[in-house]
Amino acid sequence: MSNGSRITPSVMPSHTARDKRDRNESPADSLVPGPNRVVEPVQMTGSEAIVRALEELGVTDVFGLPGGAILPTYDPLMDSTTIRHILVRHEQGAGHAAQGYYLASGRPGVAIATSGPGATNLVTAIADAHMDSQACVFITGQVASTAIGSDAFQEADIVGITMPITKHSRLITKAADIPQAMAEAFHIATTGRPGPVLVDVAKDAQQAMMEFSWPPKLDLPGYRPVVRGHSKQVREAARLIQRAERPVLYVGGGVSRGHASVELAELAELTGAPVVTTLTARGVFPDSHEQHLGMPGMHGSVAAVSALQMSDLLITLGARFDDRVTGQLDSFAPKAKVIHADIDPAEISKNRTADVPIVGSVKEIIPELSDAVRDTHAEAGKPDLAEWWTVLNRLRETYPMGYTPTEDGLMSPQKVIERLSEHSGSEAVYVAGVGQHQMWASQFVQYERPHQWLNSAGLGTMGFAVPAAMGAQVGNPDRVVWAIDGDGCFQMTNQELATCLINKIPIKVAIINNSSLGMVRQWQTLFYESRYSNTDLNTGHDTIRVPDFVKLAEAYGCVGLRCENEADLDATIEQALAINDRPVIVDFVVSRDSMVWPMVPSGVGNSEIQVAKDMTPDWDEED
């Protein structure tokens, strides 16, 4: 990728540029994010240029942990009056916090770390952001350019390590390149398909003097994201919709990333087609809407999974035919034609061949498709989907999302999450780790708006919830933020409670404590003859409780609560919601035998979905 060109110190801003600066307007042709204030050339160090570039890009919050190779940048960062730096307790926490910040606010998240182990501790978060298309910028220090390649102390080739898991990565060895590299990073991260960008800056580049000016000119000839869909393809998609008898709007996380929920609602109501929203799309179409069938996939609703299987047309918007949605790919939606709209051309026909491919932003494509559908309706009338809805409504009524009471006297985890949703409402933000609690949270919280639900989907990172909730709370300080976590996940990143307390970030943590690595235990129950190899965590009921989560919370200066029976459930949740001056951790002790249903076992087709163990819907009856 080209380094482009930058404004040289000898070139002064034109009168037009000065006029725009005075009117606080952005140059019309600038690719640089932020207000694009014009900064005339001024001498500063490379580290000061990093901080100044962040300020000019509009960054107000960063998460990080200092170390030797990034120390030159931490000194001027201390003097910034516009950037709040939040000192984490582990670099992975900084990375996940940057993700949560982006997901909840829509603004790019920023994490900073030093070289070597500091940078490699970010790798999990970088990979997670890459899998789930999140605009995050990771800034790392590197050993001096003269020492690169010598196995110097705390040297690691972080650009090489992260090249497969970043949208773009760049090593900076000259201070003069810093402004352009920073602007380039934010532009690439936030345009097209969002993704993580890494900027690795050698220590001597941070220390060297340079002339800073802003905005730099970006010239990226190899990077031209397509935004508008091809009009011919859009019209062909509308014709397929007109002819379809069993259409389904298959909606993925791209609609959330593209901020296209309003446009989606218009198209859905115009077509009258059922809508399914994937794990990363929960909330982009309200759960309460009569056309919404729920989440498809391995643990999706029977109605959503069945609709895809019986469909004759998939109107695929910002989704990628992930294996957790399709199950066995060659048996997925066997009779369906496919319209596939996506910002990333690499996703089109990657897993399932598209009959009508449309490359572009769903924010642009969906309104164009709605207009084309209106035209077909005007010519041929609106298709009658009554028969299709008769089938789907029967499925919804016969196989609603539910759960069975526990047999050991402990609470149902599903009940805990249902009540959490009832008390906290749709204005709250819900962040999950990975495992059973994640699936229950996706099923039993009522999602009514975009950016309400955050989770690690593609990578499935245990430990995501607490630091991501911290970032979400910083990005949305006026909302209630719940980290719905498992007792296993929570123990991976709970050190960030210290960060939350000291920085007055009052997240709430609901530990769904089944004293187990729950999802692994579920698979051991179903597929390994209940041989529970290394899944007992000893944190719950009738165990030695190591750790005791209430005492752990108190050790961090947080409020620790425990709820062990349903009679206390509502009062405990209300108590947690009433505390807003510090983090609250609630140990919800639940049954270890509760399982996530429905379930499509790994390696089989979606038609083999089970609503409980060895119980599959009667498809002949539905057809």
Automatic annotation (TrEMBL):
Organism from which the protein derives: Citricoccus alkalitolerans
EC category name: transferase
Task: Spell out the Gene3D superfamilies in the cross-references.
Answer: 3.40.50.970, TPP-binding domain
Q: Where does the Thiamine pyrophosphate enzyme N-terminal TPP-binding domain start and stop, copy by copy?
A: 44-159
Q: Which NCBIfam families match?
A: acolac_lg, PRK07789.1
User: What are the residue boundaries of the Thiamine pyrophosphate enzyme TPP-binding domain, all occurrences included?
Assistant: 433-588
Binding note for cofactor: Binds 1 thiamine pyrophosphate per subunit. Binds 1 Mg(2+) ion per subunit.
Q: What family does the entry list?
A: Belongs to the TPP enzyme family.
Q: Per the database record, which ranges form the Thiamine pyrophosphate enzyme central domain?
A: 234-369
**What cofactor is needed?**
thiamine diphosphate; Mg(2+)
Q: InterPro entries annotated for this entry?
A: Acetolactate_synth_lsu, AHAS_TPP, DHS-like_NAD/FAD-binding_dom, THDP-binding, Thiamin_PyroP_enz_cen_dom, Thiamin_PyroP_enz_TPP-bd_dom, TPP-bd_CS, TPP_enz
UniProt lists compositionally biased (Basic and acidic residues) regions at: 16-26
Q: Which UniProt keywords apply?
A: Amino-acid biosynthesis, Branched-chain amino acid biosynthesis, Magnesium, Metal-binding, Thiamine pyrophosphate, Transferase
- Which intervals carry biased composition (Polar residues)? 1-13
From the Swiss-Prot or TrEMBL record, give the protein name. Answer: Acetolactate synthase
Q: Which PROSITE patterns match?
A: TPP_ENZYMES (PS00187)
Family annotation (SUPFAM superfamilies):
DHS-like NAD/FAD-binding domain, Thiamin diphosphate-binding fold (THDP-binding)
Task: Give the start-end ranges of region Disordered.
Answer: 1-38
